[in-house]
Design goal:
This protein is α/β, with parallel strands linked by helices. The protein has 2 domains: 3-178, Cobalamin-binding domain (Rossmann fold), CATH 3.40.50.280; 204-386 and 422-443, TIM Barrel (Alpha-Beta Barrel), CATH 3.20.20.70. Helices cover 36% and strands 15% of the residues. The chain has helices at residues 24-35, 93-101, 119-132, 143-147, 149-155, 168-178, 235-247, 265-276, 296-304, 319-324, 331-343, 364-377, 393-396, 400-408, 415-421, 427-443, and strands spanning 3-8, 11-13, 17-18, 39-44, 66-67, 70-72, 87-89, 108-111, 138-140, 160-161, 205-208, 211-212, 231-232, 252-255, 282-285, 311-315, 352-357, 380-385. The strands form 6 sheets. The chain has a 5-stranded parallel beta sheet, sandwiched between helices. The protein is globular, with a radius of gyration of 22 Å. The protein binds iron/sulfur cluster. Iron/sulfur cluster binds at residues 214, 216-218, 221, 223, 258-259, 326, 328.
Length: 444
């Protein structure tokens, strides 16, 4: 029997929390490989509920969220001036080593990667895998591999770097590395494959995806690099999957969809079935929801199904910014969505709204006016700081010399580094905005 070792490496960053995140792509591959006669094993460095992490005090907060184990690291050169601690999040190194030592020699190693600027955690994980299995055939995929393939090919130490979604070319490559003969993917690719949660007996939640991709094209987002299309799963498969979670007593379900509500008859159909079957989940939409699809009925169904803190993507309340970044929302559409959610029973502070601070050309005054706008609506403000992502329209609009600098060193794509070179929105401005948001959120 062929063996695949799946590795979800560490994250090195200034901040990282467990908002129900799981290496979803690897878990789907695991199911597919098992169906094709493989034995699979997983080392998830971010696995807070792993039995070997018990002594490191991994505690759950509300709804199964929590903090990762973390160790401070020396800051690499570009980060010397960032006034935050730089950390490795996830397993202590001895836990990772111990896991590797007890694994059988794999025929192939599939390594995931997350945000581009966390690549050092990937490199260190590859190094450790090679120390234990010197001839390991490592295939590196995921976000960093897709957005910075040249950097990854040159420096990661992986045998191959895979860009984008899993397709039949990926399967052929895997076959040649592992000496296997896996059949082609089904017509729907990996979209209908259930994630393999057998590796997480103690995790109190499940992350799910009912859709794949996004039909929108925001100028700051790189989603199209992971596949052009948008796919909604078959209702039958979705219900079978969550029935399995209900039978195991799972209470918390987190969505990782990028466009869960798009053309909302899809989600309405599923939510109606969930109500009919009397499932008792808390649903957590981790990513922003599209305001345009929150009509009265959708809002009511979300409420009835226990959607906890639905978060709407606004990004900016400036109509010009909304238009020039892709036009996924207007203030009118947004306010109607908020009103529908309130009518369905959500209080203002039960509703989160994402804004994106420091977009190219956006200054503190503009961000503060977003904050004031949301304060008047009485909703919770969830803000993130813009980071330049290769492959996006906005990245291409950067000055050529900045683009070259950021492309050569992905660490510089970190939002905190970018605050140091963004002429319109800097570290101090962001602290003032954050203080204003905290004051509002703590009051509401
Ligand atoms: S709607 Fe969201 S996922 Fe879709 S392109 Fe815009 S930012 Fe990306």
């Amino acid at each position: 029997m062929k063996r695949a070792l799946l590795v979800n490496p560490w994250i090195y960053d200034f901040k990282c929390h467990d908002f129900w995140v799981k290496p979803y792509g690897l878990l789907r591959i695991s199911t597919f490989l098992k169906e094709n006669g493989f034995e699979t094993d997983l080392i998830d460095c971010m696995g807070r509920h792993d039995e070997d992490m018990a002594e490191y005090g991994a505690k759950d907060r509300q709804f199964g969220r929590g903090d990762f184990y973390q160790e401070e690291l020396d800051k690499p050169g570009p980060y010397r001036k960032v006034p935050r601690k730089y950390k490795r999040y996830g397993f202590p190194e001895p836990v990772f080593r111990k896991k590797l030592e007890i694994k059988k020699r794999p025929d192939v190693v599939l390594m995931a990667s997350s945000v581009t600027y966390a690549y050092q955690g990937v490199f260190d994980a590859i190094k450790l895998v090679k120390e234990t299995f010197p001839d390991a055939k490592i295939m590196l995929g995921g976000i960093y591999a897709t957005l910075c393939p040249e950097h990854a090919r040159e420096k990661s130490g992986a045998l191959s770097v895979w860009k984008g979604e899993i397709n039949n070319d990926f399967i052929s490559m895997l076959n040649s590395y592992a000496g296997a003969n896996i059949r082609n993917l089904p017509e729907t690719g990996m979209n209908e494959v259930f994630p393999d949660y057998s590796f997480y007996p103690a995790a109190p939640y499940r992350s799910v995806k009912f859709t794949q991709g996004c039909p929108f094209a925001c100028t700051y987002c790189a989603i199209k690099k992971f596949g052009e299309g948008y796919y909604q799963r078959k209702q039958e498969g979705i219900l079978e999957e969550i029935e399995g979670y209900a039978n195991k007593g799972i209470k918390e379900i987190a969505f990782y969809d990028d466009a869960l509500l798009y053309k909302n008859h899809f989600i309405k159909g599923i939510l109606k079935q969930i109500i009919k079957r009397r499932y008792n989940f808390n649903f957590h939409p981790s990513n922003g929801l599209h305001a345009a699809y929150i009509d009265e009925e959708t809002a009511q169904l979300m409420r009835q199904c226990n959607f906890i803190e639905p978060k709407i993507s606004l990004e900016s309340s400036d109509p010009d910014v909304q238009k020039t970044t892709g036009g996924k929302v207007t203030n009118q559409i947004f306010e109607r969505a908020i009103s529908n959610l309130k009518k369905s029973g959500y209080a203002g502070n039960d509703i989160g709204v994402f804004i994106l601070n420091g977009l190219p050309g956006q200054d503190e005054k503009s961000v503060m006016s977003d904050v004031e706008y949301l304060k008047k609506l009485g909703v919770k403000i969830r803000h993130s700081v813009y980071s330049p992502i290769p492959g996006t329209f906005d990245f291409m609009r950067l000055k050529p010399e900045i683009r070259a600098e950021l492309s050569a060193e992905p660490l510089k794509q970190n939002e905190y580094y970018f605050l140091a070179i963004n002429p319109d929105y800097n570290w101090e401005a962001n602290l003032r905005v954050k203080a204003e948001i905290d004051k509002h959120n703590n009051k509401s």
